[in-house]
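Sequence only, no structure available. Ideas?
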Amino acid sequence: MTLAENKTLIEVKHLKEYFDISTGMFRSKPLKAVDDVSFSITKGETLGLVGESGCGKTTVGRTLLHLYKPTGGEIWYDGKQVKTKKDIKEFRKKATMVFQDPYSSLNPRMTVSDIIGEPLDVHKLTSNKKERMERILELMDYVGLNSEHAARYAHEFSGGQRQRIGIARSLAVNPDFIVCDEPVSALDVSIQAQVINMFDELQEKLGLTYLFIAHDLLVVRHISDRIAVMYLGRMVELADAEEIYNKPLHPYSQSLLSAVPVPDPKIARTNKRIVLTGDIPSPLNAPSGCPFRTRCRYACDKCAESMPEFKEVSTGHFVACHRVDEINS
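Reply:
I predicted one. Tokens follow.
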């Protein structure tokens, strides 16, 4: 997780992803899955993205890679905006994704060698069958799979092994940047640690940069350099991993982190759990002003009137809250 260069690799500016949802006879309404999200990721860094289910984490990752066409905003890679079809094609040679479900993300009709080799074929990265097979075996070795696994099918493997196949596939184009969409949430806890350690080793070995999407806060803390917190399509806090764990400033982040289990029973007994009241509003009918105000114990009239600015309150620590100074004074 050491930053190889202090150079911005990925920059996202005011990203929006709206889906039109039918509300009746010839009528539709936009569901704001991602609404005005901005962040940057430095080369060699891991940015963790956390939040409740349905907050828009996965949509951010998919929109970033143009798997969904962005409704608005800009995506920059290595100082160049990704805009045209040609830009997107070039970008996909350098940016890939590891999907959440290792069971549904692999084609059951393809052998392991064909699954891993598909990106090589699409981007014409090998010149003959021998070179292709050598590259596939090299990728399998990276993720701890044996050469005899190459001729087998995905259903013959456990969840952890399937995810390793998915990771090998994502490495095939020799990427600089990988979106990891909850890559361990479908795995047993014992396997999770192995896969997380493998992500660390691959980052060290290949100089990778990650956007690591997860809801397990302990996993995110272990692997991330910085952490961003999302709520209802918007980013509410962004800071260094240790700082956000030791001193969360947004009321939502404070509640989220108070739920993280502590292994020391003495410390756990003294921890106060901040329980949120109410349900998450529907993104189809989001509250006016701050999206969190309906569940926030500090909400005031100003919170209903206007959206708080996502601003830097200390070096590298960004928060979107009207009352951040009062709450944390």
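The mean pLDDT is 90.
Hope that gets you unstuck.
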